[in-house]
């Protein structure tokens, strides 16, 4: 099972959109992929949990986290073979770890935690909570956005991840993100 959570090696610049729900990660992932003519890795948890909701009317439970993590890395590994320079990831296992700890009283499966910390990315864009909340079947913490943002920021700081906080409207965020990715591409 552990092999299913391991990133395959690559020379790509890997970018992660990271932060609380409904902060524009998917929109920005798609915009960046278009800009760089590359692929983006969607958030596997959305598909998995939407199917669970549609079929069982149940939300995420602790036993769902490892299958979600496996699906996320499988997607990332598959899509990393379809580009040559930059891979845009709508999320990563570190985000799954943050949600696990937030929802399950500080608990994160040790295997998930191991790979959340071991898998590597070149840059994280931490999306701020200055975007309008958009409700859907899966989002459930509209009043805890500030608390969740702090959890995400503290996690990036604790594990010494390279990150930039993105604030502002879609155009401003995109421009800022492009500036930082371009620096990595030129390095």
Automatic annotation (TrEMBL):
NadR/Ttd14 AAA domain location: 14-173
Matching SUPFAM superfamilies: P-loop containing nucleoside triphosphate hydrolases (SSF52540)
GO molecular function, one term: nucleotidyltransferase activity
Alphabetically ordered keywords of this record: Nucleotidyltransferase, Transferase
Protein name: Nicotinamide-nucleotide adenylyltransferase, NadR type
């Amino acid at each position: 099972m552990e092999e299913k959570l391991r990133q395959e090696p690559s020379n790509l610049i890997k970018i992660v959109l990271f932060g609380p729900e409904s902060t524009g990660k998917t929109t920005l992932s798609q915009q960046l992929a278009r800009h760089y003519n590359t692929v983006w890795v969607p958030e596997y948890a959305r598909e998995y949990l939407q199917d669970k909701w549609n079929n069982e009317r149940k939300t995420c439970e602790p036993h769902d986290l490892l299958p979600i993590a496996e699906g996320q890395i499988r997607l990332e590994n598959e899509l990393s073979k379809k580009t040559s320079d930059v891979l845009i990831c709508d999320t990563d296992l570190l985000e799954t770890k943050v949600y696990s700890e937030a929802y399950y009283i500080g608990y994160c499966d040790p295997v998930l935690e191991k790979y959340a910390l071991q898998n590597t990315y070149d840059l994280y864009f931490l999306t701020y909570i200055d975007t309008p909340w958009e409700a859907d079947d899966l989002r459930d913490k509209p009043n805890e956005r500030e608390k969740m943002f702090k959890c995400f920021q503290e996690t990036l700081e604790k594990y010494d991840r390279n990150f930039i906080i993105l604030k502002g409207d879609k155009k401003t965020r995109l421009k800022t993100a492009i500036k930082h990715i371009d620096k990595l591409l030129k390095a």
